Amino acid sequence: MDLDIPFRGSAAIGAGLTTRRRLRGPGFRELGRDTYVAADVPVDDRMRVRAAALEVPGAVVGGWSALLVHGVDAAPEGARPVELVVGPRHVRRARAGLLLRQDVLGEREVGCVDGVPVTSPIRTAVDLASRAGHVDGVIAVDALAHAFGFHPDELLDHPVLRDNPRGRRRLVAVVADADARAESPPETRMRLILRAAPIPQPVPQLVVHDDAGWFVGRVDFGWRELLTALEYQGDHHRTEKKQWRRDAVRTTELAGCGWLVLPVTAHDLFVDPRGFVHRVRVALARRARELAVPFP
After folding, report:
1. 167 and 235, same domain (yes or no)
2. The pLDDT of residue 162
3. What is the rounded CA–CA span in Å between residue 39 and residue 47?
4. 135 is a domain residue
5. Which residues of 104-128 are buried (b: 16+ CB within 10 A; e: fewer)?
6. Are 197 and 228 in a shared domain?
7. Side-chain half-sphere exposure of 54, counting CA atoms within 13 A
8. What dihedral do alpha carbons 53, 74, 3, 118 form, nearest 10°?
9. Binning pLDDT at 50, 70 and 90, where does residue 260 land?
10. Relative to the CA of 202, which of 36, 108, 196, 239 has its CA 20 to 30 Å away?
């Protein structure tokens, strides 16, 4: 038994690896009911989910917590309880930081990641698309579909939706806006903002070649006829020197092919989406005049 990952205290005591008194001492950290980890091990959200799964035998990690287990970074910011799916006859009560959801899961709807039982990527996508807000649901489906290679349309015929008309309506709307090509939550959010804007729609993940046909790069969104691209610039693009250098070289290479690259920031997407759309429209209209291309 590895004490550097969450473990049940009773099991460790039974195996002769520790004692109840030592578990209560400075060498271990208590994570939940009868769940511990060595005190010098950094504890993150994924580890807390792993500990919670041990705490409730037979439970399956689901919802936003399942994204953590699957290694998909698409959950909304902010603390939320660990979600476990339990059988309909489960009687244990939830506690602060732990949400128990009663449901029946089929064999194909449950997997195992690093020893943790978790809802399958498709079942996770169905659950989140049918219960979360629209934007968060689209972000989750995009991320899961991209990571695990399924098409969002596959969610539409999932049997769990037969008895959930409201959830099905939510899911149908989410699937209509989903796109597995998105490589990050900001890209999904940008796409949704642009989709509702009165501008020509760009192509996601557009591949750019030079005049000789050589590959130059792939941009987040692009208008080929206007030789214009949108590229999301997260904080790491600014703070990580290697990433900053790669961005500078790539922008220069695209400029050498006649492309204009418009950077997009979190402020554009979360604080000032209307201003962002206006600035993009103005830039596209000017670009169209420069290239003598019709612009609506």
Report:
1. no
2. 80
3. 13
4. yes
5. ebeeebbbeeeebbbbbbbbbbbbb
6. yes
7. 24
8. 30
9. very high
10. 239
Q: Is 90 exposed, middle or buried (0-12, 13-18, 19+ CB in 10 A)?
A: middle
* pLDDT tens track for 61-120: 999 999 999 999 999 887 789 999 998 776 666 677 889 998 889 889 999 999 999 999
Question: Can you give the pTM of this predicted structure?
Answer: 0.88
Tokens linked to 10: 């009773």
Same-domain check for residues 172 and 249: no
Question: Where does residue 183 fall: left (phi above 0), alpha (psi -120 to 50 degrees), or beta otherwise?
Answer: alpha
Residue 6 located in a structural domain: no
The amino acid occupying position 185 is P
- Residue 174 is predicted with a pLDDT of 97
Residues 129 and 236 in one domain: no
Q: How high is the pLDDT of residue 134?
A: 96
The confidence score (pLDDT) of residue 183 equals 93
Q: In 214-272, which ranges are continuous DSSP H helix?
A: 235-239, 241-256, 266
- pLDDT score of 95: 77
The CB density around residue 84, as the number of other CB atoms within 10 Å, is 26
Q: Is 248 helix (H, G, I), strand (E, B) or coil?
A: helix
In a domain, 136, yes or no: yes
Indicate if the pLDDT at residue 282 is higher than 70.
yes
If asked whether residues 128 and 145 sit together in one domain, one would say yes
- Over residues 134-151, the pLDDT tens digits come to 999 999 999 999 999 999
Amino acid letter, residue 28: F
Shared domain check, 158 and 194: no
Question: What is the number of structural domains in the chain?
Answer: 2
Beta-strand pair 116-119/110-113: antiparallel
Both tokens assigned to 63: 């919802």
Q: Is residue 27 part of a domain?
A: no
CA dist 134 and 94 (Å) reads: 27
Position of tokens 């969104």?
A: 221
Helix, strand, coil percentages for the chain (3-state, nearest 5)? 45, 20, 35
